[in-house]
Design brief:
alpha+beta, 247 residues, single chain, four-stranded antiparallel β-sheet, disordered C terminus, Ribosomal Protein L22, Chain A, 12 strands, 25% strand
């Protein structure tokens, strides 16, 4: 049996649910997980060169199927997926008309899952570890405003500030479903450890009116996560910004 994923709601928004599960399970659990996968998923797992990566993929995908199956009230192996141009998964028929939206990320032996109803969603998680090239990566991927905020941090806060920014930006890119081709400097997020997670700007729209909500969370020791969700359709901000891509 796979370990149950711990599920919780983000902030006071009951429409955003996040689940966290461990991927370091016993060999018999890996076998049980593999039995839930489709033939294509088992073939994909088999292409990983290292057993560790094969195990992580198998358990993470099986847990996704269980979580989706519980919400759709079907067997885990009955869930089918389709993929966007940049690989974002979604439900295939006969569940394509469902309002359920989801996204997945993993770091080391932890996987995180985000669910919402009728609202596009993206999630990311990273293991916080020393990076000698963090400043160079920030210069390449962060916006000018984010780089200024990053350099202004106390040296002891920069590591967490870097990963705060990275997870928040990647979660938004994943919510859009556009992959790394989307310009990462076209929007600004907060990153200081003492500052709440929020959008400051998307394109030419202020964070308060951008139509998206940003939350940060800690899925486990040494980890940092972020989830981004589109505002509800009846939200004035969503009506203004909607699903238009930031320019």
């Amino acid at each position: 049996m796979l370990a149950r994923a711990a599920a919780f709601f983000i902030s006071d928004d009951a429409a955003i649910e996040v689940a966290v599960t461990r991927l370091d399970v016993a060999p018999e659990a890996v076998g049980a997980a593999a039995a839930l996968l489709s033939a294509a998923e088992r073939q994909r797992a088999g292409r990983f060169a290292f057993m560790r990566d094969r195990r992580r993929f198998t358990v993470a995908r099986a847990r996704l199927r269980q979580l989706l199956g519980a919400r759709l009230q079907v067997r885990p192996d009955a869930v089918e997926f389709v993929y966007g141009e940049y690989g974002k998964p979604a439900l295939a028929r006969p569940f394509a008309d469902s309002a359920l939206r989801f996204n997945v990320a993993h770091a080391a032996d932890v996987a995180v899952y985000a669910f919402s109803s009728g609202r596009e969603i993206g999630i990311d998680v990273e293991a916080v570890g020393v990076m000698d090239d963090a400043a160079a990566i920030a210069e390449r991927f962060f916006s000018r405003r984010e780089n200024e905020a990053y350099r202004a941090l106390d040296p002891g806060d920069r590591l967490l500030g870097f990963f705060n920014c990275w997870t928040r930006k990647e979660a938004f890119i994943k919510a859009l479903g556009q992959g790394f081709d989307h310009p990462w400097d076209s929007f600004d997020v907060t990153l200081a450890p003492a500052e709440p997670a929020r959008f400051l700007r998307i394109g030419n729209t202020s964070g308060e009116a951008c139509g998206w909500a940003l939350h940060s969370f800690v899925p486990g020791p040494g980890l940092v996560g972020a989830v981004v969700v589109q505002h509800a359709d009846d939200d004035p901000a969503a009506a203004q910004y909607g699903t238009r891509l930031p320019g």
